[in-house]
Amino acid sequence: MAFQTMRGLNVFIADIRACTSKEQQKARVEKELANIRTKFKSSSTLTAYDKKKYVWKILYIYMLGYDVEFGHMEAVGLVSGTKYSEKQVGYLVTSVLLNESNEFLRLVINSMRKDIVSKEQNFQTLALTAVGNLGSKEFAESLAGDVSQLLVSPSSHPSVKKKAALCMLRLYRKNNDIITPESFGDAMGQLLDERDLGILLATLSLLIGLISKNGGYAGYDHCYGKVVRILDRLTSHHEIPNDYTYYGIPSPWLQVKCLEAIGHYPIPEDDPPRRATLEVLGRLLEKNSATGPNINQNNAHHSILFATINLAIKYASASGESGVMQKCLDLLKGFVSYKEANVRYLGLETLSRLSHVPEVLRSTRTHLDAVIDALRDADVSIRRRALDLLYEASDMQNGSAVVEELLAFLPEAEFALREEIALKVAILAERFAPNLSWYVDVTLALVDKAGDFLSDDIWHRSVQVITNHEDLQAYAASKCVELLRGGVAHECAVKLALQRHEVKVALYFGNKSGMDMDGVLCTAEGFPGTSMQTVQYVPSRVEVRRQHQCHIACTVQSASLGPNGETHIGTVMVSYRPVDASGTSRAPMSFSLPFPVYLHKFFMPAPNVSQEQYFGAWRQYSSDTSLTHQKIVHAGKSLTATELNGILSTYKLHARRQW
């Protein structure tokens, strides 16, 4: 490189490395910048050597993370030099310091064009590299024609053609109008007839960029057969130079590019080209399925193999080739339990992505044990892919088993996955429930295990399902009471129970001893937790809040059971003042909302949620991974007596309608 003989640059780098603190380094950099600024002011006396040295120093300072606000013009000026060493420094520094929107680049367009159309190969490669990194729409309009001529010219050197192809891809992405199938289709076909694998690799990158648009293969249809022939040549080891052989594999990068290009074309309607493609794909499956001790070789094999499987399943499904399909499925099943984590991830991801193919789905359902084991993999990415695949593979035969596995996995899953698991369990439970009582059991188990991660739509929907099936209501009521009596109930469990008057009946007639409602609901014979008379201190804000959810909500619900219910509500809401350990009366419990509002939210009626809206919740979750269940924000104020009476009136009206 040019800076290796520059003593001043070497000394400056040594000084920077010798700094013992950030402040010392900054002082040395500022001193050098001041010196460079002074030298540039008298640029007429600077030699080309000095300009290169100072521009190299500016680049080094920029790479250290310091802002450089001058020197750009000097770097641009070196691009216009006549020597290779000057152009090399100028193009490199310009490509690093400037971006495509910088106005300084307009000054070098003409210099770049001169280098591109020159007969000097080194100048052409420098200019094409810079355009490939910095090319903007303005560059595309000015230089696309010259770059295209270099690309198709039979006299261009292979290294120039490679850079020209990648440069055209950059310019096409900035301005799609510079290439049309009518003007470039024949040229693309000629480029695919090249024997140089480097040119083919760059050309296929350009072809993929052109046909990846919607319907973009139109005008490039004749390229399909040429790409298949390239792949056939690689799989047959015909005339493959050693320079393009990686651990005995002929150019794995080019093979993957060919497979990607073929994937952008529709499956041929004619049988001969479709058969030829399937034959090549079958050969790739055979050659890359074996693995060895060398990890680099295995990585190359797997990269080709996964690209081949994606394409082979598509073709085999359309052609009815059971042999190729079965080979792909056997390989994918082995990948799910492969020792390498990356391969396991790709196997699960491929199965999930191809789950719309019936053969893939049937094969996955017969090997769910391996997928379930992947739920407890040490890698969170693998756990996510396993979760997706279990959801996709569920049906009426295995749906209940999958739900049970997910419920068992839910308590040990990390918090980032629990909301997603809860939503999928809820959807699968309704979609594949063997009977409605099982659906109720799953919903309540979900509320009990993952109440903090449930969206309101889940328990709203369960209320609607129970309401629409009268034969289910008594069973659901008994299970709700059992859940509320079994431990500290979650807020969602209380809300779910209070939506059904069958629960009120079960609670009311469960009072065998004749005690008051506060005793029925809150003593050891009723619900675990505390009554108003037994609260002495606050061991945990969360614990007390959850205990009181059961106590408060169920006690207030007694308003619909008798004439003394409203008096009991007022007693609970107004005179509830816990006593601390010292016996001193304290202010009402500090909930996340003022006490009456916190109480009132339990009695809001559940809205109707259609099945389409409910199953669409997963699509909404997939598009917005940050979706969480809604929580009421702290109001930060106390309520007046009028506001309190309004809340009680609203509740009484709703309670009477239910009763």
Summarize the structure in short.
The protein is 66% helix and 1% strand. It is mostly helical and 659 residues long.
Defining key terms:
single chain; 659 residues; mainly alpha; two-stranded antiparallel ribbon; 33 helices; 2 strands; Adaptor_Complx_Large_Subunit; ARM-like; membrane; transport; Clathrin/coatomer adaptor adaptin-like N-terminal domain-containing protein
3D architecture notes:
- With 659 residues, the protein is an all-alpha fold.
- It has a domain at 475-658.
- 66% of the residues lie in helices and 1% in strands.
- The chain starts with 6 loop residues before the first helix and ends with a helix.
- Its main location: membrane.
- This is Clathrin/coatomer adaptor adaptin-like N-terminal domain-containing protein.
- Residues 26-491 form the Clathrin/coatomer adaptor adaptin-like N-terminal domain.
- It is found in: Endomembrane system.
Gross morphology is globular
Could you give the order of strands across the largest sheet?
1-2
> What percent of residues are in strands?
under 5%
* Unreliable segments of 5+ consecutive residues: 504-543, 554-563, 565-570, 572-581, 583-601, 617-659
* Average residue-wise pLDDT: 77
Largest sheet entry: 2 strands, antiparallel
